[in-house]
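Cast an eye over this sequence plus tokens and explain the fold to me:
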Amino acid sequence: MENNNTQNTLADIRQTLVLNAPIQKVWDAVATSEGIAAWFMPNNFQAELGYEFHLEAGPFGNSPCKVTVLDPPNQLTFEWGKDWSLTFELTDMAGKTEFTLIHAGWDADKVTEFGQPHEEVRGKMSGGWVGIVEKLRKQVEA
């Protein structure tokens, strides 16, 4: 079978967890500048379709981002850097919230802005997200 897909795509990173917090509280934590800063990275995000902002990635400098989907309180997607997208999906579960993080745009043939192969970074970030979403849990369940 011929594969015409020129991209050597790697699977999205997905983390799903049920948070013991109402959906609006979780939305405020993932779709406001202060909220995102508390569990992820400092930023100048605004909940506005097409809005361009930066995540302050410490030693990696400022990563340019752009809001591409804004559907409160259920979904936020933004482009991150040159290749990636980050999606936060929220589902109301009667006082609790199912939260799914999807980090997409991985390609085995590409390298990051810092010259690191996607494959290598994906492995690190896949593990890294586990801790990051636990920070989100602590924040919204407090």
